[in-house]
Amino acid sequence: MVRGQPQKKAGRVNKEMVGSPVEPENIKIVPPPKAIQKTWHCPKGAPAVDEIPKELDRWIRQRGRDLRLRQVERQPAVKLVNNLRNDLVKFLKDNEEQPFFRDVSVLNSGSYYEFVKINKPNEFDIMLKLKTPRIQWKMLEKFNGLFYTIFLQRPSRGEIRTFLLEDGLTISASKVMKEMHRLVQKFIKTYKVSKGHWVVCRKKINSPAVTLEFLGDNEEDEILSVDIVPALEVSQGWPEAARAGPDVDNWLGKNVRRAILGKPFYFVPKRPKTRNLSDVEKESWRISFSHIEKEMIRYHGNKRTCCEGKQNECCRKLCLRLLKCLFEGLKQTYSSELDALCSYHGKTAFFYNLSERYEDSLWTPGQLSVCFMKLLRQFECAVNDGYLPHFFVTDHNLFSSSSFPKRSLLFLGNALREQRETGLPLLRVPDPIPRLSYSPALQVRAQENALEPQNCDNVKFLRRSCIVLLTGAFIFCAIIYALYLP
């Protein structure tokens, strides 16, 4: 993220709304209200953090160290994914069946490229940027600025016409996803690697990605997965619901916020998860700022020098890793009850926490346990209040009943409280279990033990006892014989 003069004026008007473009039937552009920069704070104030026991502090630090990716695991995984990405892009650029996908470019996103991936480098996200003519969008009112219907300003004779609905203007999210899935399947059929192979997973109705899994020689051995997400790049100014920009003035600075507003944003083919969607909602797109989120996490300091060297290190990203680890443990333990929980909820709470506690001096490595517990308490506060606004589209509540079922939210609040009160058992590093195996050294040791002086004395004692018992038995038999023999 470049800190400097703003690239574009923050309050510019969305130019694609100017003029009299041709509009699809039954779609009206409603002038949005004036954007106001919003932020979210826990209504009860910053949750207090009690003194952290030494044992819990030790567990948190140890777990934080264990979550870092090992270089020996990262290199082969990154090489595998990079080869796949480069060959897929070449295939799309050379394909003659679908010219619309020829002019693609790559945007790496996700936790690995944000340097907050935990445990293993086994999940990667690749966004394929698709260029489109000038477009317009209409917000779906029920979802407060997160989902949109997209249509062209005017009819087009270009390659995009294959993905338009009957009105000739509305861009179909389902058609783009279907063609993306077909092209990736065709590519994978001819794509070979030296060890293992790639497979295309079944389509998920609410997912904007085509998911690939890399399997080892054993079919059941899944090594890693890659999500390939087609996205429409838009450089025409942000929608009104997000135009105020994220609340980073105190944290990253006003100039950075203006620079963020000058960047493009993306629409990905994802429709809402709610039931009984209308035909228009089924063809909707979700707004995405993943490229900006990546930059905000990578360049996260209040000062430019943050994390430039050992003396300037902070614990911000480590706190996010710990929260992701806790989420992962909760979802493994309560998979059905917490199906709606995802890492994006934690990332959103993390951004709000950084906006409030923005000074670098509050995030020194020595304060890791305190910083993590403050982040956890703030997220727990959001869960209990049922209110976690999207960091860029603050009118949309990620904990609304349409996005996160109330029963699951109540269960999550109880689970978080139980974890906190019992010392975060899901973060504890399990003690190593000794392996039970044959060792020649153990046999030699047993033989040596048998020859030790203490063991020899035991053997002599047993021998003497046997002799005494046998002698007594012989004398007893002799007396009986003498007394009763006629």
UniProtKB/TrEMBL annotation:
Alphabetic keyword roster: Membrane, Transmembrane, Transmembrane helix
Classification via Gene3D superfamilies: 1.10.1410.40, 3.30.460.90
Mab-21-like nucleotidyltransferase domain ranges (all copies): 112-297
Any one GO molecular function term: chromatin binding
Gene Ontology annotations of biological process type: activation of innate immune response; cellular response to exogenous dsRNA; DNA damage response; negative regulation of double-strand break repair via homologous recombination; paracrine signaling; positive regulation of defense response to virus by host; positive regulation of type I interferon production
InterPro entries attached to this UniProt entry: Mab-21-like_nuc_Trfase, Mab-21_HhH/H2TH-like, MAB21L/cGLR
GO CC annotations, alphabetized: cytosol; nucleus; site of double-strand break
Mab-21-like HhH/H2TH-like domain residues: 315-407
Pfam families, A to Z: Mab-21, Mab-21_C
Cross-referenced SMART domains: Mab-21
Parts of the chain that traverse the membrane: 466-484
Top-level taxonomic group: Eukaryota
Family recorded in the similarity comment: Belongs to the mab-21 family.
Protein name (record): Cyclic GMP-AMP synthase-like
